[in-house]
Amino acid sequence: MTYSIRSGMGSCHAWRIVVSFVCTALVAGAVMVHAADPDPLQDFCVADLSPSAPRVNGFPCKDRANVTSKDFLFTGFRTPGNVSVTGTNAYPTFGAVLEYPALNTLGISHVRLDFGIGGVVPPHTHPFASETLFVVQGSIYTGFISFDGVLYAETLQKGDIYIFPKGTLHFQINVGTGPAISFNSLNSQAPGFLVAANQLLLSNIYAAVLESSLGIFNATDLNLLEASVPPFWG
Q1: Which of 36, 39, 40, 142 is the least crowded, having the fewest Cβ atoms under 10 Å away?
Q2: What is the DSSP string of 104-145?
Q3: Cα separation of 118 and 186, whole Å?
Q4: Which residues form the Cupin type-1 domain (predicted)?
């Protein structure tokens, strides 16, 4: 009898361990598959961008009584970007929540990229989003560097799509004989935009850190390198 009771107690203890493990795994799984932005609690929440609006993680909602169909229309991609002002002969036109308030809480944003011949979007990351690139016009060489340092890159033609996983360093260059255009989508209303060269060279990191990291031991060379970074992308 004593043996049976102990066996039963042991079985119950083992069962509790199993249940605890399964619950932990389910919670962890739920966290892992969660979207880049949290799910909205209503069908829409057009952002109130007025300076007097309270600041939250995102933006407060515009009064529904004042929302019209025009709030859901974005016309910012009708006009090509001015590629001559960036220093790299390419221009990003953003359609994120600040430009397109209807995106608030919906977990998505867009970018139109215009490229002159040889135009480049410098290596950059979006810390809060994955991204797809759809070629509307021209030929674009693009790719990303994985977290284990592998370059994945392809030359895309009109109609092609490429994806950049969340947080990976990626870039674009127009390799065609004429202008190029891409339409990009990201799974966050505020994906972040961090350009590698600007972060590294224009953020006032100690010169000694940069010189050692880049193998530059001449202050003049470092100054020239810093001066060569197009400030537009910062």
Answers
A1: 39
A2: TTS--EEEEEEE-TT-EEEEEE-TT--EEEEEEES-EEEEEE
A3: 24
A4: 75-223
Cα atoms found within 13 Å of the Cα of residue 228, Cβ hemisphere only: 8
Cα 162 to Cα 156: distance, rounded to the nearest angstrom = 8
- What's the sign of the alpha-carbon dihedral 215, 141, 138, 108? negative
Locus of tokens 């600040």: 98
Q: What 3-state class would DSSP assign to 61?
A: strand
Orientation of helix 207-214 relative to helix 219-227, angle to 10°: 90
Predicted pLDDT of residue 35: 53
Contact 93, 112 (CB under 8 A): yes
The helix or strand, by DSSP H or E, that contains position 212, with its residue range, turns out to be helix 207-214
Assigned token pair, 90: 């390419």
pLDDT along the chain (234 residues), means of 10: 46 47 43 58 81 78 95 97 97 95 94 98 96 98 96 98 97 98 95 94 92 90 92 86
In three-state secondary structure terms, 93 is strand
Report whether 136 contacts 181 (CB < 8 A). yes
